[in-house]
Amino acid sequence: MMHLTEDQIDELLMGSLPTDEIARMREHAAGCEACAAKLAEIEAPIASFKAVTLAWSERRSATMPVWPKPVRAGARWTVGLAWGALAAAALLAAVIPVLRHEQNVRVQQAYRHAAGLPIAGQLSSAGATVTVTVTSANAQDASAGSEVPENPQEIASDNQMLAMVDEELNAPIPASGLNVPATKSRGQSRSTTQGSLQN
Amino acid sequence: MVGHRARTRPLTGEIACGAVIWGRRALVFNGMALAFEAVMTPMQAVVQTGSELDDIDALVRTYRPRLLRFVMFSIGDADLAESITQDCFMKAYNGRASFRGDCSVNTWLTSIALNLVRDQQRLQKFRFWRQARATAVDVTEAANFLPSQESSPERTLLTAEKSKQVEAALENLSPNQKMIFMMRFAEEMDLAEIAETIHMPINTVKTHLHRALKSVRAQVAAAK
User: Fold this and answer.
1) Which of A13, A125, B26, B162 could form a disulfide with A48 if both were Cys (CB 3.0 to 4.6 A apart)?
2) For position A115, what pLDDT does the model report?
3) Which range, of A28-32, A137-141, B4-8, B94-98, averages the lowest pLDDT?
4) B-interface mutation test, from A48, A72, A76, most B Cβ less than 10 A away
5) What is the pLDDT of residues B148-205, one digit of tens each?
6) Which helix (H) or strand (E) holds A120?
7) Arithmetic mean of pLDDT over chain A
8) Is B123 within 8 Å of B102 (Cβ atoms)?
9) Does the beta carbon of A68 lie under 8 angstroms from any beta carbon of chain B?
């Protein structure tokens, strides 16, 4: 067999030849010093390159984190739980105000029924005065129309309490009874407040 | 969910020890005859390839060094190569359902990396600082970590020197030539495999490879 040509060496390295031809060329190179040297001239550097770069990349890879961490089964379970808790919290947040509102309405109704008091609270911002209108009405009339059976004793005590509140509100405020600094403007504003308290 | 855990955990062992683990487990649960059967089952390899992708730790341990090297010498920047390699594993893991098993896992990973490298090269065309190679490989240092049979200082130095010649020669190749050279001589893929991975006709691959090899041979010979 003739010496290996440059192209033959290339073909041999590229692995583009049939296996029997490769075997024949290797066999020749094994017995031919010139061809072996030629082949080694490129094969040795490539082998070195492979070894060195792999040593480098193995070392480098070892310092890298196993980063694309998959979502573990446990983590997925936790995420599910968290979503569940969130959904429950949202539901509660939505339901509680409704319930509370209902409760408020019921309490208000109970008061109205109990005292028969249409309570109107008005805050007039213009005059900075609070106008509270408390109208006494017949409790028995109110409870007659009531569907909820109520304890008459409770109603009576509530009425008594409201009457006392009424009385307190209507009582004239003694001029010297309050420790108000006796500036003129303060005294005026006090008197207007007093005047606006109506029965 | 418990089922999921039970399914993935044994795979680590499966990859590490193959049929031995299976054999032992079968021995414990089903007795001697089944153990023998499990060891002998030739289907094991097929099952392993499909499920191998579920265990990201094993996948990274087995394939990352070579993949990192491929990306590194295709793109020429260690830090960039590192992030591309990580992206590649994330893509592979997320898309593991699409792996049909008609090629090796290594080839599949290489093709993913190749697309990422190409995207990067397209990006770098428009970057004026692409020539500034901040993080090259220090070959002489890397040579110190070679396995022990290479450990004599003279040998190590010689190996590092030769490796450097190839590395320098790679610098002057086109991106495609570089990638194909790496696939052939570092990954030891054959021409048909390379053609499939890089989506090129086999003759085009051969042309690129031949040019690359001629160039590298000439530069290595000139460096002597």
Assistant:
1) B162
2) 65
3) B4-8
4) A48
5) 665 678 888 888 888 889 989 998 999 999 999 999 999 999 999 999 999 999 999 9
6) strand A119-124
7) 73
8) no
9) yes
Write the pLDDT tens digit of every residue in A34-47.
999 999 999 999 99
Per residue, the 3-state secondary structure of B87-136, as one string, reads HHHHHHHHCHHHCCCCCCHHHHHHHHHHHHHHHHHHHHCCCHHHHCCCCC
- Helix, strand or coil, per DSSP, at residue A121: strand
Q: Classify the complex by whether its ipTM is higher than 0.90, answering yes or no.
A: no
Q: What is the 3-state secondary structure (H, E, C) of chain B?
A: CHHHHHHHHHHHHHHHHCHHHHHHHHHHHHCHHHHHHHHHCCCHHHHHHHHHCCCHHHHHHHHHHHHHHHHHHHHCCHHHHHHHHHHHHHHHHHCHHHCCCCCCHHHHHHHHHHHHHHHHHHHHCCCHHHHCCCCCCCHHHHHCCCCHHHCCHHHHHHHHHHHHHHHHHHHCCCHHHHHHHHHHHCCCCCHHHHHHHHCCCHHHHHHHHHHHHHHHHHHHHHCC
Are A41 and B56 inside 8 Å of each other by CB? no
Amino acid in the structure at residue B196: E
pLDDT tens-digit map of B33-67: 444 444 444 444 444 455 677 888 888 989 999 99
CA distance linking residue B84 with residue B79, whole number of Å: 9
Stretch A48-61: mean pLDDT? 90
Residue of A9, A13, A52 best to disrupt the B interface, most CBs of B under 10 A: A52
B162: nearest Cα among A51, A30, A15: A51
Q: Which two tokens stand for residue A117?
A: 């008091």
pTM for the predicted model, two decimal places:
0.56
Nearest-5° Cα angle at B114, B109 to B119: 130
pLDDT for res A11: 92
